[in-house]
Amino acid sequence: MRNIFPVLIFLVLSTNNVSFCSHINSYTNFELAHFLVNKDSGDKSDEENDKATTSNSNESNIQASAHKGERQKLISEVAEVGDGKGGRILCYQNKAPAAPESHNNPLKVVYSIKTPISTKSGSRYIPTTSERILDAPDFINDYYLNLMDWSADNIVAVALGSCVYLWNAQTGNIEQLTEFEEGDYAGSLSWIQEGQILAIGNSTGAVELWDCSKVKRLRVMDGHSARVGSLAWNSFLVSSGSRDGTIVHHDVRSREHKLSALAGHTQEVCGLKWSTDYKYLASGGNDNLVNVWSAASSGVGTASDPLHKFNDHQAAVRALAWCPWQPSTLASGGGTADRCIKFWNVNNGTLMKSVDSKSQVCSLLFSRHYKELISAHGFANNQLTIWKYPTMVKQADLTGHTSRVLQMAMSPDGSTVISAGADETLRLWNCFAPDPLAAKKSVSSSKAKQSVFRQSIR
Questions:
Q1: What is the rounded end-to-end Cα distance, in angstroms, of the chain?
Q2: pLDDT band for position 91 (50/70/90)?
Q3: What's 32's DSSP letter?
């Protein structure tokens, strides 16, 4: 007759005192297990198997029946030993211990009713691949320069080699704004808050003002003895940071544009940002310093001495960002030897938090729609990282660049980030798209300021 295959019963075993019941004398008595599991259902299946295997010979049928009867008699005798109940094959002596409080069941997504893109903590879906890619040949791989900015009128300015280009993000049109003479180049670009005036800091130490609606240069403002690598607007005031270590405030309305020069750094000023309420100017330098300057009592420019001097970073500080909902909170990021993102309270000059990002920090931006921060990094992963603020729990890594991500800028509607990499590509990430339900409630959404990356770029 056919062999009776053992029934394998998978049980979750406690680590504490699991044993066979007392009436089982062998750890491998699978035939007994099979008998106990199937004894209530009778011998119907065995009889059917016997008939199927012995239909060609009456003699073999008699022999098989005799053998079967002897086997079942032996099993029955063993099974009746003990409590006589034909009990469980395996049993617990003690109750299984509860899982520790910190335990996170990795299989919950298998039986969760909710979709895996949303968790109970309220995390949102973040696309981790770029929405569009633009070629950026000759983008200068220099950590200390700021070669891209996005205007309130939805125009991206980017410096490639000795040229400055304008890309209309709504229409997709590209035009060349200017080309420098051989050997010269743009070191920084910055749009005025409203309108189409672009400031360009060049390699000779001058700041140029361009009316991009007319493709016309308005004026050239001197003031530095070395290249201008950082710029920041405050209404009619444009502040410039240079390799000569100084910061100059220019009043673009006046013929005598140079209001003052600040000497708070000993090396190149590579980061420069006005706070969202324009009460403070933050500067970062290759001397590893972060300086915070308070606005002048006259309302134009700043005090001549820094209000705070932060020297906790161990490498150059180029990445600076002011929190839009906490104007007194400044974020700064350090270079390769530092790798930290630090948060400062400029009201009292204290360090609130420091996080090791594990790689060079090239740029920082706060989201306007979420309590989040995005950082751009160099070696080893060349990624953009989104962090929850203020916990600094990592939300997502945005990958695609094959070399360090030198620059970021945000769209006027706050939904999209453009990144510029040393791999000579610009990538668009729709990582801060507002909640659709919240967007329906918003009445004032200008068509010109909606996300515009529907057309093919490459």
A1: 72
A2: low
A3: H
Short-list 305, 220, 230, CA closest to 267:
230
CA distances from 250 to 157, 178, 241, 302 (A): 21, 22, 11, 12
The tokens describing 400, both together, are 């695609």
Q: Residue ranges per domain, the chain?
A: 18-92, 132-449
Two tokens, residue 160: 């490639």
Judge contact between 154 and 452, C-beta under 8 A: yes
Q: How many CA atoms lie within 13 Å of 379's alpha carbon, on the beta-carbon side?
A: 5
Helix (H/G/I), strand (E/B), else coil: 238 = strand
Under CATH, what is the fold of the domain 132-449?
Methylamine Dehydrogenase; Chain H (2.130.10)
DSSP one-letter code for 227: -
Strands (E), 296-404: 308-310, 317-322, 329-334, 340-345, 350-356, 361-366, 372-377, 384-388, 394-398
Q: Where are the alpha helices (DSSP H) in 124-260?
A: none
Report the C-alpha gap between 177 and 169 in whole angstroms. 16
Q: How high is the pLDDT of residue 221?
A: 98
| CB 272, CB 229: distance < 8 Å | no
Nearest alpha carbon to residue 201 among 223, 216, 182 = 223
Q: Which two tokens stand for residue 185?
A: 């180049």
What pLDDT digit, counting tens, does each position of 253-274 carry? 999 999 999 999 999 999 999 9
3 state DSSP class of 448: helix
Q: Which two tokens stand for residue 195?
A: 């309108």
Q: Among candidates 220, 259, 224, which has minimal Cα distance to 242?
A: 224
Looking only at the bridges linking them, the beta strands covering 186-191 and 18-20 are: unpaired
Contacts of 208 (CB under 8 A, 6+ apart): 199, 200, 201, 202, 217, 219, 220, 221
Comparing C-alpha atoms, which of 379, 378, 380, 396 is closest to residue 388?
396
pTM above 0.85, yes or no: no
Nearest 5°: the CA angle 57, 59, 61 is 75
